[in-house]
Amino acid sequence: MDVRAIPPGKGGLGSLALIQPGTTIVRIRNFTRMVHSRRRAILALAAAPLLVGSAFAQSWPSKPIKLVVPFPPGGPTDTASRIVGQKLGERLRQPVVVENRAGASGSIAAAQVAKSAPDGYTLMMLATPTLLAPHLYKKAGYDTTKDFTPVATVYDLPIVLVVNPTLLPNVTDLPKLIAQAKAQPGKLNYTSSGAGSFGHLSMELLKQMGGFEMQHVPYKGGVPAISDTLGGQVPLMYADLVAALPHIQAGKLRAIAVGSPQRVSMLPDVKTIAEQGFKGYDAVSWGGLLAPPGTPREVVDRVAGEVGKILADKEVQDKLLKAGAIANYQAPAQMGQRIQQDYAKWGKVIRDKGIAVE
Q1: How many degrees, rounded to 5, is the angle at CA 146 between CA 326 and CA 114?
Q2: Residues 229-277: pLDDT tens digits?
């Protein structure tokens, strides 16, 4: 069979002829027009989901938004959620309703949020304990790195190493604490708010880097841990700054180091652990907004943009600071990277030390 293109004037522009000897010519007319029509149809089908998503984003939000806090009322995560949630509701012109669902380091709430409808009406305030819970609980029910859509970081929560000045009168900085720990291997006790808490993990990382030993005495919560540190049952604690600050200011506890890479404004004279001989040491608890997987990108970007504006407000920054938190905005991509990095970093500490929570 001989296939030839029929030039203009003999079959129409773009027509083809199939020519067989001894038979008539069969023309397929308007071939170019057919191709163009098919291409337009394919492009229209490909664009349809984008148009639907755009229409949804333009109408969102049309009802109240639920902000799940995976901890009890009153703590820094809850306080930050209420401060930012109120402002977010004002900017979106829909109420943001805070719902507390405590339990298992926040893993109960997180597992539920991961399975929620991705319609933009459910958010969760992630905190470091919830980020790391899948490393600690065998049945956490979610993977922090895969089962959520990062929206924006909101705050950093500094942690501080404090000693009872009556029990350890000569320990005024980190090198002196480590020298005493090395002089009494395994005999010096420290406490935190619980096994697998961020204070616990942060001290284990420091012990690993410093080559010294101390015995962990876990408590169920920061309040009883601080109470016994104040009472002299335990000589030192790795504590959330928000919980320890009033006792530091009253002189009942002595702050000897902060875990963040930079000094904190609430304790400007207290050196970081990195400044005291541990270059690269970085232990900061933090919080940020997550959404269920599959939440429309337009909605995520809208919320992230509003949160960035909210956290740039000096009034909001001051309110967070009074709660012991430092405003810190990071966009969705940056938050996603931070989740990945912290999950890997602290997961290694948990595995190396064999830390688990029943």
Answers
A1: 80
A2: 999 999 999 999 989 999 999 999 999 999 999 999 999 999 999 999 9
Helices 128-136/107-114 angle, 10° precision: 90
Residues 6+ apart with CB under 8 A from 356: 136, 196, 350
Q: Distance between CA 210 and CA 201 in Å, rounded?
A: 14
| 61-156+287-353 and 158-276: identical CATH topology | yes
C-beta separation of 161 from 294 below 8 A = no
CATH topology of domain 158-276: D-Maltodextrin-Binding Protein; domain 2 (3.40.190)
37-76 per-position pLDDT tens digit: 666 656 656 554 544 456 656 789 999 999 999 999 998 9
Domain boundaries, the chain: 2-58, 61-156+287-353, 158-276
Report how far residue 349's alpha carbon sits from residue 347's, in angstroms, rounded to the nearest whole number. 5
Q: Which CATH class is domain 61-156+287-353?
A: alpha beta
How are strands ordered across the β-sheet holding 16-19?
2-5, 16-19, 26-28
Instruction: Give the CA angle between residues 90, 95, 99 to the nearest 5°.
Output: 125
CA 49 to CA 55: how far, in whole Å? 10
Residues paired with residue 163 on neighbouring β-strands, in sequence order: 236, 254
C-alpha separations of 329 from 38, 105, 216 in Å: 46, 23, 33
SS3 content of the chain, % helix, strand, coil (to 5): 45, 20, 35
What distances in angstroms separate CA 350 from CA 32, 110, 135, 309, 355, one per listed residue? 65, 20, 7, 36, 5
